[in-house]
């Protein structure tokens, strides 16, 4: 089986040549992220109708993230010999089905089952999309291609979650999930039409003398990714709580989160124009800005103006993180692109779920003002890995 390649006619080239496929992947990523995060905005309504508390309803997000963390690598290994495009289409079909099940669910148990379908799809989708985006273009364009695909996730935060939440508030959470199911079905069709098929990547040569070193570099990138996401979600999970405690009116939280997401798109743009030229300097800069902004947030709290300024800088910097680590991981060549995507996907979701837990523990223990400081410490730990592991995060991409 290891020799099966399912050859395709596609030959990687420039970003412009791969534009159709990149647009399709970006749209699919937008809907995948919106599917993951939509319950956050409609949890109270879901809990009320289904007869469960908000904390129980919140498990729909937490368990989803941990499902992705646990399943990403095993599912990628299990499907490593299958043709990539049909497998990607299958994940979009599963997203569609999962959202339909949630929209029509008569009970919380059935909602949980629908979310489980989505979690399985998510575990595989992002592993595939990271690898797919890198295979559409020549190596010198990897950073820009992945930044464009990642922009779909940023747009999910900026537009997808607020818009679907507003729709759920106006017409009901079931309608929001139903519309999202239709969007996923449309994305499936567009991916089928626009995305070219790519080859299944063969496993590396076990006798390769560089294999252990490359795996070590990949481990360093994965570790730094997990630490930075831990720091990010230690704070971001409770950003609405921070804003309200700083004196922002409840009606202002949505617009502020929208601005944070828009600034994140600016960070994604910055990554796109720097990752193929000076990836190390770019990543060190955005991590340093994140640390300074989180520390400033901790010291400014509860002053509203200082809190808003610090959150703005923090949001812009984090927008560059996903594509930066994805690109660094792909360039290590420490495994197949699909397995690398799975590791990046899994470690990010470990950070999402673990960060929420850490932030909650800090909030319950020493108080809200310390949440940004703990988040900054975790990001510093990731920054230290980047500084020390110079070969995993080179100054210039290999040509």
TrEMBL record:
Location in or out of the cell: Cell membrane
One cellular-component annotation, GO: plasma membrane
Keywords: Cell membrane, Membrane, Transmembrane, Transmembrane helix
InterPro entries with a match to the protein in the record: MFS, MFS_dom, MFS_Efflux_Transporters, MFS_trans_sf
Lineage: Bacteria, Bacillati, Actinomycetota, Actinomycetes, Micrococcales
Single GO molecular function: transmembrane transporter activity
Pfam families: MFS_1
Domain Major facilitator superfamily (MFS) profile: from-to ranges: 21-393
Matches recorded under SUPFAM superfamilies: MFS general substrate transporter
Membrane topology reported for the UniProt record: Multi-pass membrane protein
Membrane-spanning segments: 21-42, 54-75, 87-110, 116-133, 145-163, 175-198, 242-271, 283-301, 307-330, 342-364, 370-389
UniProt main location, coarse: membrane
Span of the signal peptide: none
This protein's name: Transporter
């Amino acid at each position: 089986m290891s020799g099966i390649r399912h050859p395709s006619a596609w030959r990687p080239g420039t970003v412009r040549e791969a534009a159709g496929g990149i647009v399709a992947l970006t749209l699919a990523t937008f809907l995948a992220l919106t599917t993951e995060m939509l319950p956050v905005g409609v949890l109270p309504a879901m809990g009320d109708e289904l007869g469960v508390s908000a904390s129980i309803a919140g498990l729909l997000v937490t368990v989803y993230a941990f499902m992705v963390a646990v399943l990403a690598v095993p599912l990628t290994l299990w499907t490593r010999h299958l043709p990539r495009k049909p497998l990607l289409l299958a994940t979009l079909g599963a997203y569609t089905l999962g959202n339909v099940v949630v929209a029509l669910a008569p009970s919380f148990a059935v909602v949980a089952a629908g979310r489980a379908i989505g979690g399985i799809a998510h575990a595989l989708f992002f592993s595939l999309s990271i690898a797919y985006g890198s295979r559409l273009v020549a190596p010198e364009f990897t950073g820009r291609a992945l930044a464009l695909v990642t922009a779909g996730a940023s747009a999910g935060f900026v537009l997808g979650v607020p818009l679907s939440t507003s729709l759920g508030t106006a017409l009901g959470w079931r309608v929001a999930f139903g519309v999202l199911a239709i969007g996923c079905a449309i994305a499936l069709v567009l991916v089928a039409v626009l995305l070219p098929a790519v080859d299944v990547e063969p496993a590396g040569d076990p006798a390769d003398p560089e294999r252990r070193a490359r795996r070590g570099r990949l481990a360093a990138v994965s570790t730094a990714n997990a630490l930075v996401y831990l720091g990010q979600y230690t704070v971001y999970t409770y950003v609405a709580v921070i804003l309200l405690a700083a004196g922002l009116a409840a009606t202002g939280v949505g617009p502020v989160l929208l601005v944070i997401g828009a600034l994140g798109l600016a960070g994604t743009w910055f990554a796109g124009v720097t990752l193929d030229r000076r990836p190390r300097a770019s990543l060190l800069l955005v991590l340093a800005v994140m640390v300074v902004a989180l520390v400033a947030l901790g010291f400014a709290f509860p002053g509203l103006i200082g809190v808003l300024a610090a959150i703005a800088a923090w949001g812009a910097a984090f927008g560059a993180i996903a594509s930066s680590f994805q690109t660094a991981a792909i360039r290590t060549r420490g495994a197949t692109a699909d397995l690398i995507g799975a590791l990046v996907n899994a470690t990010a979701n470990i950070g999402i779920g673990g960060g929420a837990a850490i932030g909650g523990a800090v909030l319950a223990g020493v108080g809200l003002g310390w949440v940004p400081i703990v988040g900054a410490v975790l990001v510093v730990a990731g920054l230290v890995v980047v500084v020390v592991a110079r070969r995993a995060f080179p100054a210039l991409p290999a040509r």
